[in-house]
Design a protein that fits this description.
It contains eight helices and seven strands, in the order βαααβααβαββαββα. The protein has a five-stranded mixed β-sheet with strand order 3-4-5-7-6. The protein has a two-stranded antiparallel ribbon with strand order 1-2. It has about 220 residues and is α+β, with helices and mostly antiparallel strands. The mean pLDDT is about 90. Helices cover about 50% and strands about 15% of the residues. It has two domains: about 90 residues, no CATH class; about 120 residues, Diaminopimelate Epimerase, Chain A, domain 1. It is globular and about 50 Å long. Strand 4 and strand 5 form a beta hairpin. The relative contact order is 0.14.
């Protein structure tokens, strides 16, 4: 499963990409299926949840392809078993991304993404692509000072431990020589296979972002 911020632009983009693979399916069917894939029983339920969030801190959801396929099938679409949202959700063209991947040493892409994270007040997660392995980097320097309290002090230490445990769990899938270094505020994991890095980036963004969203909702 891949993670996505539930914004109207993101949902419309993923829906458009899926319809390219299944042009025979009705638009309304994809609307319902995507909501079901995001964990909601209906599109109306997802819209109600989105309205409870602020535009600055949209809901972060995992998209379950099996749930999407089951809803499409229930709605009468018989070629839905091959539905995959990962490519769309992790596409560079997704309007509101949660992390990016670019060639190692691409200073222009690095600077552009930092400015984007700063503008959106989100943690800066980026994957540096090499020949075989990739490096996942993160930092919270992009955050407004009022948004970074959760990565400071005892709460920051607790989040750092959660990130390390999450890394250990994901890295066990394919044993290798990856290396975790840093804290919740700034750090990196080097020598990762790409697919592991993508999943880890999703998880790390959730760990760093959700406390910020909850803080905004409580304000």
């Amino acid at each position: 499963m891949a993670s996505i911020l539930l914004t109207l632009d993101n949902i419309d983009f993923v829906k458009s990409e899926l319809r390219k693979a299944m042009p025979e399916a009705k638009s309304a069917h994809f609307t319902e299926a995507l909501a079901f894939g995001a964990g909601y029983n209906t599109h109306a339920a997802m819209q109600a949840a989105i309205k409870t969030s602020t535009p600055q801190r949209p809901i972060l959801a995992k998209i379950n392809d099996e749930r999407i396929a089951s809803r499409l099938t229930a709605l009468g679409n018989h070629s839905s078993s091959a539905v995959s949202t990962k490519v769309a959700v992790r596409s560079p063209a997704l309007p509101q991304r949660i992390w990016v991947e670019f060639r190692n040493g691409d200073i222009g892409a690095n600077n552009y993404w930092y400015r984007e994270c700063q503008k959106r007040d989100i943690p800066n997660l980026r994957i540096s692509r090499r020949t075989k392995y990739v490096k996942l980097n993160w930092d919270c320097i992009s955050l407004d000072g009022r948004s970074e309290t959760h990565v400071m002090g005892e709460s920051g230490s607790a989040l750092g431990k959660t990130m390390f445990k999450t890394y250990q769990g994901i890295a066990r899938r394919i044993p290798g020589k990856s290396e975790f270094f840093g804290s919740s505020f700034v750090g990196s994991v080097d020598r990762l296979l790409p697919e592991l890095a993508y999943d880890l980036a999703d998880e790390f963004f959730a760990i760093l972002y959700e406390p910020m969203r909850q803080q905004t909702l409580a304000a």
